[in-house]
What we know:
There is one protein chain. The protein is mainly alpha-helical. It has two domains: 3-254; 315-419, no CATH class. Helix content is 73%, strand content 1%. The protein is built from eleven helices and two strands, in the order H-H-H-H-H-H-H-H-H-H-H-E-E. It has a two-stranded antiparallel ribbon with strand order 1-2. Helix 3 (54-80) runs parallel beside helix 9, helix 5 runs parallel beside helix 7 (199-222) and helix 7 runs antiparallel to helix 8. The longest helix is centred in the C-terminal third of the chain and has 79 residues, at 256-334. It starts with a helix and ends in a 6-residue tail after the last strand.
Amino acid sequence: MGREPSERQQFLLANLPxxxxxxxxxxxxxxxxxxxxxxxxxxxxxxLPSVNATIPALETAILINDLIxxxxxxxxxxxxxxxxxxxxASGYLFTALIVIPHALIFPGAFTPTGLLHAGLQSSAWLYxxxxxxxxxxxxxxxxxxxADSATSMSDHSLEAVIGLSGAAVIGLxxxxxxxxxxGDWLLPRIFLDSVHADPSRIWQxxxxxxxxxxxxxxxxxxRRRSVLxxxxxxxCCNWLIELTMTAVLLNTRFSLGWYASRIYTxxxxxxxxxxxxxxxxxxxxxxARSFMRQRANRHExxxxxxxxxxxxxxxxxxxxxxxxxxxxxxxxxxxxATPDLDEARAALGHVVDDGRRAGEVIGGIRSMFKKGATxxxxxxxxxxxxxxxxxxxxxxxxxxxxxxxxxxMASHNCLPIExxxxxYF
Length: 425
């Protein structure tokens, strides 16, 4: 029982080692992202028409993707009961929820200055908080995973822990939103107006996010061991490219680099979700195929057992039928007007031979299965012998019935058949 949960966890994404195909695919995606970055870098500040619906549309997709990713990670936490997965799931829940106020307060998305009484710096600082949350969760995931052990909490306790972690994330999002909106006048100025940013300030705010993301990537690389680790590294590479654009190269909104960075954000959100869904579907398909094979094998075993049971019944019924026939013959020889003791003795000798054959059959069955069920069969066969000979003595009308039938069944760990019939033996 102790090994079963551990063996079951080996098939989960958080513990399953990546295949060579998955590693090549991840490297290919990173190369494509780097090539795309290299192509767009020379034109990163090229101004394009402003499309205010970009933020609500993209961040709605990010919200849905990260919520589903968080739910899938929480399902694995319920199975493995490891805190590292809860921390990672909470990080994805944070990124899913914080895009809601970011979309609401972004200038021009719903109102010219944003909702929630946002200031000029509110969306920029909320973006900074947003991109610090998930790298911190990844760092916590890696550090907790190596020192983590499965908790023995009940299902109700696990649900309470998940509820508390969700409430903590919601409280954190609300607190950071309040800081970015109500405390806008206290925060350092990043944007000079709704479009242009101060390059020195935006670099300072982005340096923290870059450092956290790079640290998460290094930790994952040094302690990588699962499929989940592999794709989290791809996500971190994606975020590094995006943050390099926004914090180092970019100094204006609605430029080519700004639109490209939002696509990188959406890509980072989709990567882990697609892998979780793909691997979960693959594992489910493997489980379904394994179940079908087990059911087919069980059906074949049932057919084989039925055939073997019929064969055993046939082999045992033959000596038993011969015993009944010979016993009836002996009764008839003994109940004649002049009992023929020689014929009766010969018939009873055949009964003993048939009993020996039955014992050999049972002994063969026992040697096949090496189980203790044979003793019960022999015991019942012994009882049948004793009752038959007792009935025979009563039929003969005698009170002296002493003899001992030594059956070869004793050599097969069966009980000896004893009966007193001295009158005839």
